[in-house]
Amino acid sequence: xxxxxxxxxxxxxxxxxxxxxxxxxISQIDGQTVAVRLSxxxxxxxxxxxxxHSFKGKTARTSVMFGPPGFAYVYFxxxxxxxxxxxxxxxxxxxxxxxxxxxxxxGEQVARARRPxxxxxxxxxxxxxxxxxxxxxxxxxxxxxxxxxxxxSPLRLQMPEAALPSDQILTGPRVGVGxxxxxxxxxxxxxxxxxVSAYRPAPxxxxxx
DNA sequence: AACCGGATCGTCT
DNA sequence: GACGATCCGGTTG
Length: 209
Prior knowledge:
There is one protein chain. This protein is α+β, with helices and mostly antiparallel strands. Helix content is about 15%, strand content about 30%. It is built from four helices and nine strands. Strands 1, 2, 3, 4, 5, 6, 7, 8 and 9 form a nine-stranded antiparallel beta sheet that branches. The chain is globular. The structure holds a DNA duplex.
């Protein structure tokens, strides 16, 4: 018997991040179905992660991160993009895994239609990057806090049938995280997957002194 | 291929 | 009032 997904996600956030590689997110939003197979994720939270939104305590935006695992944490960045996270860790402890990239396995035409412009992009790059991934799925703030493990949700998580071979899982620094959290090797991706986003070091934050 | 600036607004100080 | 867990398109080499 496979372990229950909620139980898996309640464990250490780094284990959850690795376990999410190869999982599928299925969205049924606006009457359309799109599914993405995850190829790249980043862990946030734990307890003393200065790169996590939850680091400075619970706020209205981050409250779902402090709740039970398996729910969607959706946030808005740069005035135009939505990003999707899976809440992890036990109830009461803030942690989440940012879904950074994946392969569109169902609904490619719908995913393309949701892109801003009609620019030619290879199928592998359609959901390459957290904001692109969310856009493909049609995810917005509407899905904040939905239960990803409830069969009735418009956004569902289906864990992989079998764990990936460990030599297929690579780790490295997180993207877009500066300051004290920059060195955490909490990014996980599938070695051979072409949808993995391009790595770009976080812009150096000016230090006083 | 690499670099640069613009877009655009919720959230917290 | 500043700045972000980003992406895109233009320009330069």
